[in-house]
Amino acid sequence: MKKTLAALFALICVAGGANAALVSPNKNTGNTTIVAQAADDLSLLEGIHAGHYSYKYADTSIYTTKFTLLTFKEESPADGKKAETKSSWTDASTGNEYAIYSEVITDLNKTVVDTQYCIGIKKAKNTILDAKMNSAVDLSELDGFIPSDTKLPTTLVSDLKGQGVKYIADSAFANSYLKTVDLTGVEYIGKNAFNKCAYITEIEIPKTVKFVGEGVFSGSGLKKLTVNNDMPVIPKSFCSETALTEVTFAHPEYIREIGVSAFAKTPLSAPIFNQWYGKDVSNYETLYVDDSAY
């Protein structure tokens, strides 16, 4: 594997072989200390910048986000007929499959701290070339339908009318011909959402994105990535096996952990640490670099 690595980056990779590397900026000197530490011993306490996150639950080492596909049933079926049920529908104009999801966030104590409902794109049309997420999704397929779960509000469909896609579901665009995507309005991006999208080369994650799942760009043609949202934990296999040569983080000082294989098998050199050079890093988080992150 041919890579040109900065000296700091090389040291971190060596330390990382012991399961994880701890990278700690010295508050007094601004120098960086690197200490090997087993992944099982990593602290899951909030980072020093937690109070500045634009999204309270951004730290995925502390909060778990789970999405569940919701099912709907006819509110008033015809006499003598069984109520029809739907869990997703295909938009005739786009060929994309959509659904409504619940989003439940729990903390380390398994306590539910937040619940939301949103429209998601379940599966994009395989031949899609350009995607925009901020247009209102047509919910007319669910007219006359209410949630099958009686604990949910019967007005859920009408409450979501006029809204665009907030959630890109797991593998929604995987293996598609997608070339460009505008993520404006998107708040959650599921696991492997753009996996193996060979023709997509550049993506910008808006600051409004609250959650990004594992392997979201893995195996794609991605070359340039701009991360404008809060990302304290870079997900596992985030951009692995891509052509990535440039990545920029709006808040590198927030980063606490680089997940397993996050940038593995890429031509990238020092994706995080090159933003440290020549800067006072005393306000940066202690950084854990997991196995084979690069």
What does this structure look like?
The protein is mainly β. The protein has 2 domains: 1-49 and 253-294, no CATH class; 57-250, Leucine-rich repeat, LRR (right-handed beta-alpha superhelix) (Alpha-Beta Horseshoe). It is 5% helix and 28% strand. It contains 2 helices and 20 strands. The protein has helices spanning 7-16, 156-160; strands at residues 20-25, 32-36, 64-69, 72-74, 85-86, 89-90, 97-106, 112-123, 130-132, 145-147, 167-168, 180-182, 188-189, 202-205, 211-212, 224-227, 233-234, 246-249, 257-258, 287-290. The strands form 5 sheets. Strands 3, 6, 7, 8, 11, 13 and 15 form a 7-stranded mixed beta sheet that branches. Strands 2-1-20-19-17 form a 5-stranded mixed beta sheet, covered by helices on one side. It is globular. The termini are close together. Residues 1-19 and 24-43 have low confidence and may be disordered.
| CATH structural architecture of the largest domain | Alpha-Beta Horseshoe
Helical segment count: 2
* Biggest sheet overview: 7 strands, mixed
Order of helices and strands: HEEEEEEEEEEHEEEEEEEEEE
CATH class of the largest domain: Alpha Beta
Tell me what portion of residues adopts beta-strand conformation.
25-35%
CATH topology of the largest domain: Leucine-rich repeat, LRR (right-handed beta-alpha superhelix)
Number of strands: 20
> For the terminal residues, how far apart are their CA atoms?
11 Å
**CATH homologous superfamily identity of the largest domain:** Ribonuclease Inhibitor
Stretches where pLDDT is under 50 for at least 5 consecutive residues are: 1-19, 24-43
